[in-house]
Predict the 3D structure of the following.
Amino acid sequence: MAGGWGAKAQGGGMLLALLGWISSCVTTFVPLWKNLNLDLNEMEVWNMGLWQVCITQEEGVVECQAHGSFLALPPELRISRLLMCLSNGLGLLGCLLAALGLEGWRTCEDKPGRKRRLLLAGGATLGLAGITTLVPVSWVAYNTVLDFWDETVPDIVPRWEFGEATFLGWFAGAFLAAGGLLLACSARAPSTDTPLAPAGHQGPAAPGLPRGHHLHPKNADLVI
């Protein structure tokens, strides 16, 4: 029963980890972190990401322009770019380590302790990847909320709102963390129980004693 639960937990953890890693990579590169709808020109929608800004027109034409300078970006976008790239690398490394520690793979099959350590390391790395995904996405979302409700900005000025990549990033971080937790919990120590002797089996008789001789005297021999 424990082995069946461990295999299911490893399969579910790897599936969540892969979904989270792919979603994290998509979140990093799509220009959909923020959306801006212009009231004066409703035919244009501005989208901002970590790498570029895109303008979508009503006809479906999309024009994108990369950010001019890394140092000119706001602090949350600069740090978010670094953290998301780090998250993508950690997610890939965690998936590789966890895959080597799965029960279905024959790598290190004769060394269960090493497979367990690989699975634990993969789960911990995936959990760290989930954290490094949730932090930048939440930071950008927090600053977006502050700018949206900033009373010093006139109401006529358009406000940035949440983009689709913000929600995708939250799901990606949750999937990575949940997958890493499942993989780490499924790594169990190898069983060290000593197998019991089959019923009816008796050990060899003591050497030097005739067959049928008992080591302890009978009760009748003790009577004087």
